[in-house]
User: Which sequence fits this backbone?
């Protein structure tokens, strides 16, 4: 794959994907909001990675982050958009700030990252992989806001797939069920202790993203045991 961009790389699944890619011999431009976490990864992974702090819900920061990634490693062969946040609780409790936070960090960031990826490698070809969630498939109690953002992501990405059909850019949508991580720290409606590990989910995803000579994965659904 060569040069790869991973968003949300500082923790959880994004961190596991970054570690897995480096172990497979790739170079990764890591993007995330918390630079300290990216620096910690840089210290452990060395010259195979670079950390780029950015809020990907803002157009200008997406452009600057991708420009920095290209300057460091060249055009990406693969972009994995893993960044996202969650707010949980019954309908009626969400504040305006919570609504904006989830929609901007999940849906808006997906749109902006996809647009930038299409501009960079839409005609050359490559892979754009987006981590959605089983929450993009079925409504879940106490997750209405999160589900809404993920269903919006799915609608946008399916439309993008229709637009790019027949072209060299391959789109892959990844739908994991619950992953054990700090993502659930602000929730009390689920017990995440028996969720899948980020490392196991990452290995499934990375295997699936390696296209074969005559076929490739378009959608990957990962259920937990």
Assistant:
């Amino acid at each position: 794959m060569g040069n790869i961009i991973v968003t949300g790389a500082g923790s959880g699944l994004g961190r596991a994907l970054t570690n897995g890619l480096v172990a497979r011999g790739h170079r990764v431009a890591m993007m995330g909001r918390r630079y300290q976490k990216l620096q910690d990864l840089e210290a452990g992974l060395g010259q195979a990675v670079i950390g780029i702090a950015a809020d990907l819900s803002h157009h200008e920061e997406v452009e600057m982050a991708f420009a920095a990634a290209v300057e460091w490693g060249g055009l990406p062969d693969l972009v994995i958009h893993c960044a996202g946040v969650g707010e949980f609780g019954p309908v009626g409790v969400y504040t305006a700030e919570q609504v904006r936070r989830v929609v901007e960090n999940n849906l808006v960031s997906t749109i902006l990252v996809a647009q930038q990826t299409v501009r960079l490698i839409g005609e050359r070809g490559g892979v754009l992989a987006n981590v959605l969630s089983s929450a993009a498939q079925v409504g879940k109690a106490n997750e209405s806001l999160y589900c809404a953002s993920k269903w919006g992501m799915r609608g946008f990405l399916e439309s993008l797939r229709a637009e790019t059909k027949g072209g060299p850019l391959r789109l892959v949508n990844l739908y994991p069920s619950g992953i054990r991580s700090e993502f659930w720290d602000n929730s009390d409606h689920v017990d995440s202790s028996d969720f899948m590990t980020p490392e196991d989910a990452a290995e499934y995803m990375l295997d699936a993203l390696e296209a074969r000579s005559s076929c490739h994965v378009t959608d990957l659904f990962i259920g937990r045991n």
